[in-house]
């Protein structure tokens, strides 16, 4: 989790949510377009040390 958080832009707000079988990291990306956020998450999760982490885009209305 620390490696993932450290690789994300500092202006993003992150909140971990622990569930029984999963940890979810909720991210708010102020001043980033959805495309920029997706590209950055894809780049960060390409790190072999973060194998097993996946992202799913969820837009709040």
Describe this structure in words.
With 61 residues, this protein is an alpha+beta fold. The protein has helices at residues 2-7, 34-44; strands at residues 13-18, 23-28. The chain has one domain (2-50). The chain contains 2 helices and 2 strands, in the order αββα. The protein has a two-stranded antiparallel sheet with strand order 1-2. The longest helix is centred in the middle third of the chain and has 11 residues, at 34-44. The radius of gyration is 11 Å and the shape is globular.
SSE blueprint:
Elements: H1 2-7, E1 13-18, E2 23-28, H2 34-44
Antiparallel strand pairs: 1-2
Mean pLDDT: 85
Termini separation (Å)?
Answer: 27 Å
Widest sheet: strand ordering: 1-2
| Helix-strand sequence | HEEH
What can be said about the biggest beta sheet?
2 strands, antiparallel
The percent range for helix content is 25-40%
Strand proportion: 15-25%
Query: Pairing-aware structural class of the strands and helices?
Result: alpha+beta
The total count of helices amounts to 2
Radius of gyration: 11 Å
| DSSP summary, beta strand count | 2
Number of domain modules: 1
What is the global morphology? globular
List unreliable stretches of 5+ residues: none
Distinctive features:
alpha+beta; 2 strands; 2 helices; globular; 61 residues; 28% helix
Short summary of the structure?
This protein is α+β, with helices and mostly antiparallel strands. The chain has two helices and two strands, in the order αββα. β1 and β2 form a beta hairpin.
């Amino acid at each position: 989790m620390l490696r993932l958080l450290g690789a994300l832009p500092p202006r993003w707000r992150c909140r971990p949510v622990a569930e029984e079988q999963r940890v979810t990291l909720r991210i708010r990306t102020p001043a980033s377009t959805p495309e920029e956020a997706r590209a950055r998450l894809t780049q960060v999760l390409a790190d072999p040390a973060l194998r097993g982490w996946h992202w799913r885009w969820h837009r709040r209305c």
